[in-house]
Design a protein that fits this description.
The protein is mainly beta. Helix content is 10%, strand content 32%. It has a single domain, classed as Rossmann fold (3-Layer(aba) Sandwich), CATH 3.40.50.300. The protein is built from 1 helix and 4 strands, in the order ββαββ. The model has no long low-confidence stretch (mean pLDDT 82).
Length: 87
């Protein structure tokens, strides 16, 4: 029996899984959010900007619902956006 992507048959129950990547500006709480959702400290969370330098992964599992989320905490990005007047 072929399962759909992101699903695994575990006997009589189907487990659904997926990936969530958190990207955004530095020092806005991405690591804190990952820690809260996963339920343990997997990412360093400080007030100092640029603490996360590499992608950090944590897995959140809900056994009752039969779901798993792979949370990916990405480093903050602060790329400058050029507008048409500054060219």
């Amino acid at each position: 029996m072929a399962e759909a992507p992101g699903q695994m048959d575990t006997g009589s129950r189907t487990t659904r899984s997926g990936f969530v990547g958190l990207a955004g500006r530095p020092n806005v709480g991405k690591s804190t959010l990952v820690n809260q959702i996963v339920g343990s400290k997997v990412a360093i969370a400080t007030v100092r900007p640029q603490t996360t330098r590499r992608a950090i992964r944590g897995v959140a599992t809900d056994l009752e619902a039969g779901t798993q989320l792979v949370m990916i905490d990405l480093p903050g990005s602060s790329a400058r956006v050029m507008n048409s007047r500054s060219a």
